[in-house]
Design brief:
Layout lengths: L10 H9 L6 E2 L7 H25 L14 H15 L8 E4 L2 H15 L5 E7 L3 H7 L5 E9 L2 E2 L1 H13 L3 E7 L13 H14 L2 E6 L22 E6 L11 E5 L2 E3 L5 E3 H11 L6 H11 L11 H32 L2 E2 L8 E6 L6 H12 L1 E2 L1 E2 L17 E5 L5 H18 L3
Parallel strand pairs: 1-14, 3-4, 3-6, 6-7, 7-8
Antiparallel strand pairs: 2-9, 4-5, 8-9, 10-11, 12-13, 13-16, 15-16
Length: about 425
C-alpha cells in the first residue's frame, strides 16, 4: 500500500486525507503551523487592520489601488525589502525585490519556467537527496528540465557528490542551471547548511555558472541565533532568496518575497536583470500581488504608534518558543521510550535547531517506510510521513529504501505528545524488531 504519491497530490495533503479515516490518530505527520497561533494572529489583524489601512492611505497615492505594477506596488516592495534587509542583513532594495501571494512555490515555478523555456539545450537542476516533495512535483511540469539528486549529510549537500552529478549532467548533454534547496531547517531532514560547506559548494557554482535558489521557508523559526544565509556570502551574485511569511503569518495569505542580485544570461548572450524576466512571467500568468493580502500582513506588523515595523522576528518569538517546547518534549520522550535503540544505532536522528521536522532513520533494510507508516497508522493509531517519495528517482535510487520516517512537531497538541511517542515506540519496536 502506497500511502501517498506527491506526483499527483501534495504529500501532506494526500496523507491528511488518509489520516482523516483515523480521527483519533496521534498526528506526527502534518507539517503545518499550529492553528492556535493563527487564532492569535487573526485577533491582532482584526484589531490593527484599520490602522494599517489608514497608514497606507496616508502614505500612498490613490493610484496605489488602480491597475498597478506586476512586480508589486512600490510601497510594498520598499517595505518588504527593508524587512528582509533588517531581518537577514541582505542587500535588499525595492529594485531587486519582488512580492507575490503564491508563496515560495510560486517563485520556484516561475524561476524554473524561465530556466527551462529560454534555452534550446535541456537543463539540469540539482536537488538534495532527500528533498522537499513539492520541488519534485513542480519539476514534473517541465519536461525540458531534469532533476539530479545530490547526497547530503547533516551539514548540507556533499561537495564531491555535487561535482560528480554536475559532470554527469554535462556528459548526458544537459546544461547545469541551478541548485534548489532549503538551507535552514530543511524539509524533511531538519538539517542546516553550514558556512564552510557553502564556501566549498560555491566554488562549483562559480566554475559552472550555476544559480542557487534558496527556499527560505523556515528561517524565521530558528531555535538558535544562527542567521547564516548564503546570499550574504555570494560575491558573484548567483543566488536567489525566496522568503515566505506563511510559516509565521497567516498561511492563507501566501505572502512571499523574491530577492536577488543575480543577472540572467539570455540566449543571445545579452545581459539583463533577472527580475525583468520574472516580472514578464508574473504578467503572463496573472500573478499580480494581492493588495488586500499585504494589507493584512502590515496589520500584523504595526506597532502601538500605528506604524508598521519592517521586521517579522518579534512576531516569530512566541511561535518559536511553542515549537521548541514541542521538539524538546518529543526528543526527551524518544530518549525515554527508545533509548536503547538510539544508543545502539538501530534508530538515529540529528538534533534540529528549528523548523518543523525530525528525520528518524532506522537500521532495517527489509521494510520500506511506506509499510512502517501504514502499520503505525492502522495498528497503533500514529500518523507519520514515509520518505520514499522525498528522493530524486534516478538509476542510483530506483530501488532505494531510505529507511526513515518524518515526524513533525509543529501541529501536534502538547498533551498528545507523551501518549503519541509511547504508541510510536511500541509500534516501532514490533514493526522493526527493535
Amino acid at each position: 500500500m502506497q500511502i501517498f504519491n506527491p506526483q499527483t497530490l501534495s504529500a501532506t495533503r494526500k496523507l491528511a486525507e488518509l489520516i482523516g479515516q483515523y480521527p483519533e490518530a496521534k498526528n506526527f505527520a502534518a507539517g503545518l503551523p499550529d492553528p492556535n497561533h493563527l487564532l492569535a494572529d487573526q485577533e491582532r489583524m482584526l484589531q490593527k487592520h484599520p490602522e494599517a489601512v489608514k497608514y497606507v492611505l496616508e502614505n500612498t497615492s490613490p493610484a496605489h489601488f488602480n491597475y498597478g505594477k506586476t512586480a508589486g506596488p512600490d510601497f510594498y516592495r520598499d517595505f518588504f525589502s527593508k524587512t528582509i534587509a533588517t531581518d537577514w542583513n541582505l542587500r535588499a532594495t525595492a529594485e531587486n525585490t519582488l512580492i507575490g501571494t503564491a508563496g515560495n512555490t510560486g517563485w520556484i515555478d516561475i524561476l524554473l519556467r524561465i530556466m527551462g523555456e529560454n534555452h534550446t539545450q535541456p537543463s539540469a537542476v540539482f536537488l538534495s537527496n532527500p528533498t522537499y516533495t513539492g520541488y519534485l512535483a513542480t519539476l514534473d511540469k517541465f519536461p525540458q528540465i531534469t532533476a539530479f539528486g545530490v547526497n547530503c549529510d547533516k551539514n548540507g549537500m556533499i561537495v564531491e557528490d555535487l561535482a560528480n552529478q554536475v559532470e554527469k549532467a554535462k556528459r548526458a548533454g544537459f546544461v547545469p542551471r541551478a541548485i534548489l534547496d532549503t538551507t535552514r531547517h530543511h524539509n524533511p531532514t531538519g538539517r542546516n547548511l553550514t558556512l564552510e560547506r557553502w564556501q566549498s559548494l560555491y566554488e562549483i557554482l562559480k566554475r559552472d555558472g550555476i544559480y542557487f535558489i534558496n527556499d527560505n521557508a523556515y528561517s524565521y523559526l530558528s531555535f538558535d541565533n544562527n542567521d547564516f544565509h548564503p546570499l550574504n556570502h555570494d560575491p558573484e551574485n548567483l543566488g536567489f532568496e525566496m522568503v515566505t511569511f506563511s510559516k509565521i503569518l497567516i498561511p492563507g495569505l501566501r505572502c512571499a518575497v523574491l530577492h536577488t542580485q543575480a543577472e540572467y544570461l539570455t540566449p543571445d548572450n545579452q545581459r539583463r536583470f533577472f527580475t525583468e524576466k520574472v516580472i514578464e512571467y508574473l504578467a503572463i500568468n496573472n500573478l499580480n500581488p494581492s493588495i488586500p493580502a499585504f494589507m493584512c500582513a502590515l496589520s500584523l506588523m504595526i506597532d502601538d504608534t500605528g506604524t508598521p515595523q519592517p521586521t517579522l522576528k518579534p512576531l516569530a518569538v512566541p511561535k518559536i518558543e511553542s515549537y521548541k517546547k514541542r521538539y524538546q518534549m518529543i526528543s526527551q520522550a524518544l530518549s525515554d521510550k527508545l533509548g536503547s535503540a538510539l544508543k545502539n544505532g538501530a534508530l538515529q536522528y540529528d538534533p534540529v535547531q528549528g523548523g518543523f521536522f525530525i528525520y528518524l532513520r532506522y537500521d532495517n533494510n527489509k521494510i520500506f517506510p511506506n509499510e512502517v507508516a501504514r502499520q503505525l497508522l492502522e495498528k497503533y493509531n500514529v500518523a507519520v510521513v514515509p520518505t520514499e517519495d522525498f528522493w530524486v528517482k534516478d538509476e542510483r535510487n530506483k530501488k532505494l529504501n531510505p529507511q526513515a520516517i518524518r515526524l513533525s512537531f509543529s501541529g501536534i497538541p502538547i498533551e498528545t505528545i507523551e501518549p503519541g511517542v509511547d504508541a510510536l515506540a511500541k509500534g516501532l519496536k514490533v514493526i522493526l524488531g527493535l
